[in-house]
Amino acid sequence: MNESVRRRGQRNVALERDIGQSIREARERAGLSVADMAERMGMQPAQVHRLENGSVIITVSAMASAARVLGVPVSTFFGQHDPLAGGNSAASDDPEEREVLEAYRALRPDARRGFLDFLLGVAAK
C-alpha cells in the first residue's frame, strides 16, 4: 500500500510529526506562545503541545484553525508532503524569490497585508 494512502484508523506518524513541527515553526515565527495559540484556537495548551509534537492525529478542523490564527494557508503545514509539489507549487529555484517568501512568512500576520500591498505597488510601476 502506498505510504500516503492509509486505511481509516491507521496513523502516518511521520506526516503528523512533520505537520506538527510546521505548525510549531509558524507559531514561533508569529511570535505566539503555546498558551496564546491555544487560547486563539479554543483549546488547552496541552492540546496544542500534542499537535505540535505529532502525538495525536490532527484533524482538518484543527489545521484550518491553526492556519487562521497564524494567517497562513493550510498548505504551509505540509512541507515536504505538500500535495501541490507535483509542479503546481509556488516553490522557486530563484534565491531572491525564496528570500521574499521567507521574509513574508516571517512577518506577523497583521503586517502581511501592508507588505503585500507595498510589493504589489512596486511591481505595478
UniProtKB/TrEMBL annotation:
<dbReference type="Pfam" id="PF13560">
    <property type="entry name" value="HTH_31"/>
</dbReference>
<protein>
    <submittedName>
        <fullName>Helix-turn-helix transcriptional regulator</fullName>
    </submittedName>
</protein>
<dbReference type="InterPro" id="IPR050807">
    <property type="entry name" value="TransReg_Diox_bact_type"/>
</dbReference>
<dbReference type="GO" id="GO:0005829">
    <property type="term" value="C:cytosol"/>
</dbReference>
<dbReference type="GO" id="GO:0003700">
    <property type="term" value="F:DNA-binding transcription factor activity"/>
</dbReference>
<dbReference type="InterPro" id="IPR001387">
    <property type="entry name" value="Cro/C1-type_HTH"/>
</dbReference>
<keyword id="KW-0238">DNA-binding</keyword>
<dbReference type="InterPro" id="IPR010982">
    <property type="entry name" value="Lambda_DNA-bd_dom_sf"/>
</dbReference>
<feature type="domain" description="HTH cro/C1-type">
    <location>
        <begin position="23"/>
        <end position="77"/>
    </location>
</feature>
<dbReference type="GO" id="GO:0003677">
    <property type="term" value="F:DNA binding"/>
</dbReference>
